[in-house]
Amino acid sequence: MRDSISFSNQLTFFQKLRSFDYILLLCVMLIGLIGIFSMYSTDGGEILYHTKNHALRFCIFFSMMIAISFINIRTWHALSYLFYFVTLLLLIWASFYGITASGSQRWINLYFINLQPSELMKIAIIACFAKYYHRAQIHTMNKFTNIFFPIVILVLPTFLVITQPDLGTSILIAISGIIVLWLAGVNVKYFFYSFLLFIISAPFIISFLKPYQKLRILTFFDPDKDPLGAGYQIIQSKIAVGSGGLTGKGFLKGTQGYLEFLPEKHTDFIFTLYSEEFGFLGSLILLILYAILIFRIIRIGSLSRSFFAKIFCYGFGSAIFIYITVNMSMVLGLLPIVGSPLPIMSYGGSSMLATMIGLGIVMSSKIYSREQIS
Amino acid sequence: MISDDRNSGFSKLKTVNRRMFIFSAAKAVVFFGIVGRLFSLQISENKKYLTLSDKNRLRETRLPPVRGEFKDYFGKTIAGNLKVYQLHVVPEQVEDFRSLIVRLKDILNFNNEKLAKLIKIKNSQKPWETLVISENLTWSQFSRINFHLHELPGAKPVISVGRSYPFGESYTHVLGYVSQASPKDIISNDIIKDRNVPGLRVGKSGLEKKFENELIGTNGVQRYEVNAYGKRINQIDFKEGNKGKTINLTIDTEIQKLTSELLRDKAGSISVMDIYTGEIIAMNSSPSFDPNLFLYGIDNNLWNQIKKDPLKPLINKTVSGLYSPGSTIKPLVALSALENDVIRTNMKVECRGKVEMYEQKYHCWKKKGHGFMSLKNAIKQSCDIYFYELARLLGVDRLNITAEKFGLGKQVLGEYFLNEKKGIVPSTKWKKENLGQNWYLGETFITGIGQGYIQTNPLQLCLMTAQLANGGYKIYPKIRVDENQNSYEMIKQKMLENEFEAKKKDNALIKATEEFLKPSIKEYEPLYRNPENVKFVLDAMFKSTNEIYGTSYSSRIDDPKYQFAGKTGTSQVKRITEEERELDLELSQIPYRNRDHAWFIAFGPYKNPRYAMSILVEHGGSGSKAAAPLAKKLMKAVIDRHEDRQNKNGLKI
């Protein structure tokens, strides 16, 4: 055991390079490229603000991901709780001193970037749980403390994000956390009980929601009720996707996007724009890239020796899947509109940063897959 | 412990991997769900969303249709189009309406009254309906608007089509006028509704209204790509509309202009008709107004002035004015009497200026009386006493039949003028049905001189004259050029054939019975029983104008080229009391409202008649003094134009 550890520690640079998951890297780069081209299209076929920023961020954070992957997974294991607490502190900071934009106080001005801690929390919560359950024994798994602490760990950030208010991100944090809890082996009955509790308390939660959030949920069920108001986004998004057809309207020729009928086309609705221009085939290619990405992440998890790496990869892969599913279902009119970016594609530094950190840790797990953490 | 740990670690690994596997399977299902959704949106429902997307981005601007023109008989444009510059605003698209309107006020020099009116209109319509700020801008105003356009968000300078009437008031009563379509116009006419654009002008009266559906034309369409904020990005295509149909009228502008001249400063009406083709050569009513005023949006004061004018410029007197025909009915009364074999032409009646019948006094216009009168002389000198007697012998019901045959009591142009009046040709039955009273014999007397219940419009008298002048044949009046119109020669031929048959019928009773059993509707059918009776009446009318003591002798033309025959009429507008009769006031001493209407009907040239006319001067006094002199000038002009008109026909064929 010790031998293998020391062996790993002494991996040469080229050995590390060799053990990269290049398929995963290729997927990330291709999705990133598609993202940059889509951004170029939102700028009306010119290299403007969004394209420049997006490309720059992608390059920086992609390099950062490589850097992270060179660092031993043990280090990331060791830093997990700290990562969580720092992110939690940032969330608290944001709720007091954060920048307010479009009615929500969720950004911290770091001068070179407006950081959105809630995005980081999506990764932090997975890392934190991975470390927590790395230690936990199977027979102590369902002890009171092993249920109680994770719930506290999960509820704190969720609550903080919900009060920003940012319903979308808080739901995503909660779902990511719950998935890790389930993957780690928490008894199914607790999920069942919590689900019942959720159903019972749903009316109270709804009364707690802001009016615009209620409206969004109502709109989801009947978007035609107010086509120019609350239903506008979903209707226009469906029109854009639907009018794309098999092969799309062509690059830079998406009328819905170009003529500004699409809302939030840089961020949450980037897939709509892409789908309008590249059609069903283009969307299918993107979906396959994402599927390969997720598959590779999970595969790395299954190859990892340490529970930390395994749970993190499983959790992160599942979380990415959830982000994609929620975002796409939302723009295709299958779910109510809640703010949720499409990983790597959407414009937004924090989301990109969080995703790249996650991918970096996954890649580190790959390189140090033989590493055993005591 | 270590083995425990290992066991535990192993079972944990198993759990984690198992759950990951379950979850991965679920992921695959969800992915396929998303792919399915994409398929349904992009492949199955692609058409629907493609349409929606086009609907989103494409905006159609409908251009105003170009209205068809009116041309006179010689192809001269009498109602044409011109470009007008308008300013439209859609209040919904304007952020700050008040500041926009104030800015426009400065640029266009509106007064406050106009401003208040605009705001009133704006408040009365829906916010998405276009508000026409100005219907007709001058070029300098229009260019000023365009120059300042960047500071006038929401203002839309529009080039539209306006109507112009080069002959101004001459044609007002024939053509009517156009003005901005009112909500009522739009609701009542589906074609207007279909082609409506802001600022569209539609016919409000006359033939402009009658032929609206033919004149209106179709909209041009401009298609633009717009963005989500409605801003125009670029023009996708442009389809020109079809201009409305050009409508050719039978009217001769030269004559029409002359009629305007003749009726200047008078209230009255003139109609001229071709006695064979039925084509109306001139048709005018006075006073008139300039229809071009509506192009610029007529101002209220002027409009009220026109509306309240006691001479009623808004009424087309030729078809909508009803008057007692007065003595102009006498040829018809005489004809009716002859046709019914009531009298012989040599019957004599003594006129002593008045006569007492059934304890009632009846007067002749000539106080001293005419002495012994024959029928021909009675027509020539318009002796009332003779016609009282004639009417008594004839009876009102037989007169009624003849009058209706010759076109009285019926619409002449029918569908062409929406407010054409039928007039009244009384009969005993008519009185019973309409007034619920029995007919009095005295009423027959005054009907015989064209007073009492009988009412005609000037066009009916023109038609009556025409149908007498052509020898007593039915003709078909028209104001629109008919491409299939029979030529004069053909009509004449048909009339001759009809006369021949009528004579045969007289001779062979059996044939007449046959005809009776299967009556056929004949073109240009004879309206007489015996053509000699018509000839007799026409001769009497000739004498009335061309022989001394004839009532219109002073208006005669001796040159046979222009020589015409006519009959005067002076119709009372109120009952004359005995004192008034004694006073024998000069025309100028009688209040305008109480003065007689002056009539004159005529046809010419006498040798080979071709044109008939009726002239009315409201409250003009006597027919021979006020109306007949107009006919002299008019007849000359009409006959002078005859050759041109014939040549025009030649060219057409």
Give your account of this protein's structure.
The complex is a heterodimer of chains A (374) and B (653). Chain A has 374 residues and is mainly α. Chain A has one domain (2-367). In chain A, 71% of the residues lie in helices and 3% in strands. Chain A has 15 helices and 3 strands. Chain A has a 3-stranded antiparallel β-sheet, with helices on one face. In chain A, helix 5 (73-97) packs across helix 7, helix 6 (117-135) packs parallel to helix 8 (167-184) and helix 6 (117-135) runs parallel beside helix 15 (349-367). The longest helix of chain A has 34 residues, at 270-303. Chain A is globular, with a radius of gyration of 21 Å. Chain B is an alpha+beta fold. In chain B, 43% of the residues lie in helices and 17% in strands. Chain B contains 26 helices and 19 strands. In chain B, strands 2, 3, 4, 5 and 10 form a 5-stranded mixed β-sheet that branches. In chain B, strands 12-11-19-18-17 form a 5-stranded antiparallel β-sheet. In chain B, a hairpin with a 5-residue loop joins strand 11 and strand 12 (280-286). At the A-B interface, helix 8, helix 11, helix 13 and helix 14 of A face helix 1 and helix 2 of B.
